[in-house]
Amino acid sequence: MDNVLLEVNNLKTNFYNKGSKIEAVRGISFKLNDGEIVGIVGESGSGKSVAMKSILGIIPKNAKIENGEVLFKGRDILKLSNKEKQKIKGKDMAMIFQDPMTALNPLIKVGKHLEEVILRYNKISKKEARKKAIDMLNLVGIPMPEKRLNQYPHEFSGGMRQRVLIAMALCCEPKLLIADEPTTALDVTIQSQILKLLKELKEKKNMSIVLITHDLGVVASLCKRIVVMYAGMIMEEGLAEDIFYRPLHPYTKALLNSIPKVDEDEKKRLEPIKGTAPSLLNPPKGCPFAERCPFAVDNCFKEVPQYKSISETQKARCFLLEKGGK
What we know:
The protein is α/β, with parallel strands linked by helices. The protein has 13 helices and 12 strands.
């Protein structure tokens, strides 16, 4: 039986701005097991990053978690004091942000970035912190780490800066690593290296990883399970082979149809998803994908379908599935 590390139940996060409310995360629930990599996919604006930042408690001041539980090792971290949250946030849970150039202070040397994180969560000397910083750069595959510690972020390539961010996140050997679009700004070769690195680190350290991305190609080789988000809600969840070979929700199918496939006839045109995602300032009453869905029926526009288990490994939110259709 799998050991559940993280369990999220009915999490809702809203943004407030000048009297208006944006429902960014609309009641999501999922689990993450020890040593598992789960991919969270969806178009930009689907609520992926806000959901993960809500879990870590790093949402902006104008955002508020309205409802839900975030159970980490069985404890609801939303109910902990700020001091207790800080301990968990740095030591047990860490996040890699998508833009390494803005995440690193250009005026501070790379070694200082790493040493500050290490000293914040470990009672060790500066000398020991420096040695650990060198070890972390070695771990993420940065050559000549002793020399690199004394360099500034602009002296690193994009891929190397991303490796520095991964090293910073791993300094305290977290049980949970959240990687927010870690390969977006990188070229294909470097993307592949970073994904391979995450997989190796997961195996070496037995970490659990949540990988946030809009790129289904990225999750195909790395993730055991995939969660598909749209307009602040989870539309479907399943094992990677379920999502890629037996997708249930029309949105998941549309996502898959919009990416190129190497093994198919080159002349086959990609199918873009027609229309745009709904505004979360005034979310639709029914299924958020109804306006763009070629299979939508009257009921889809009137109420939100329930999120149900369709098989032992797959869940989805669609009225067509309730009728037995696909």
